[in-house]
Amino acid sequence: MPLLHIAHRSDWEAAERSGSYEISTRGHVLSDVGFIHASHPHQVSRVAAHVHGDDPEDLVVLVIDPSAVRADGVEIREEDGGAGELFPHIYGAIRPAWVVEARPARFEDESFAW
């Protein structure tokens, strides 16, 4: 099952050029937080509403291959995101090679589409 991460399109495009994506979540970077927040497919809409509901920037959903992450020696931990629900956290920068697709994302009629 892929991991998902919601990104500003501009941040992702910069990462494709530089070879490294280091945004943990909106307004926070990997060096401050220690990991990059990710979601399972059934969680991404709620995360989008909570974190990006008022976000005016273009968004993409990064579809990440967890086996590629682990093959490069980067740890993925399932950790409590609050109220006992486990979310995947990636303990390192995301490499573009791990991303199998960057899907355009948007809010439509108060629901998140990707």
TrEMBL record:
Q: Name one Pfam family in it.
A: DUF952
Q: Which domain of life is it from?
A: Bacteria
What's the protein here called? DUF952 domain-containing protein
